[in-house]
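Letters spell out the chain; backbone shape is given numerically. Take this protein:
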Amino acid sequence: MIDREAWGAAPPREEPTLVPHSERDQFMVHYSTGEELGRRDTFQWVREIQAYHQGHNGWSDVGYNYLVDREGRVFIGRGRDAQGAHCSGSNRRAIGVCFLGDDDPGTQDATPAARAAIRSLHAQLEAELGRDLAPVGHRDGFATSCPGDELYGWVHAGMPARGGVVQAPTPSAPRPTPTPARAPRFPLPQGWYFGPKSGPRESVSGYYGHRADLRRWQDRMRYRGWSIAVDGLWGPQTEAVARAFQEEKGLGVDGRVGVRTWTAAWTAEVTR
């Protein structure tokens, strides 16, 4: 972890806006791309990004909360608690993390060291904030190619250790998981639910955008020991898990993820 003094940060132009921990629910990954891709001195690279954000964009500081280079070094940008300037509409809820590179597998792709650093930072922030942070890419909050198909796919696979496909734990050997006092807020309007694309207006399938909130429920279920893809899309597997979970917890079986099924994913006792 490289602090601001160590990488030579210029002072922010104004006091940062702090975000309560309760508002944080996303861990948003970006990439930097651009003409600097051949650089070896990433300390200088981070300083130039800050200078561009302050000078050209007129921002108070570098836009990202953290930056990660190919060697796995994590540079503190605005830090954990400050509102970033990395994705309009998501700067309060999402902690922005920028990989210093692009999506070309032959040159500046996200190395194992970079991926390990991003994954470890995610785990550290969740522990410090005491809440889940859904891993998402910049394109989930804005019409952009960032962070590139390779890095985006890895993020949406749950940031697996070797960059491969996530292997869901078997029902007989779930990962141990604490049960928090309360679940995160149900993200849909009253009376709405996650369900099939063929359903009514209130049935949200993720078909048009691989929804981060549906991925959050899927990831929680996978964490509890269920075999489920974490892709933000409603499909037969997600419906089957929802039905089995509802039956197990006595929730009333309809195969939809409404507020009760959402809440139980965090608050119900882990029994499988």
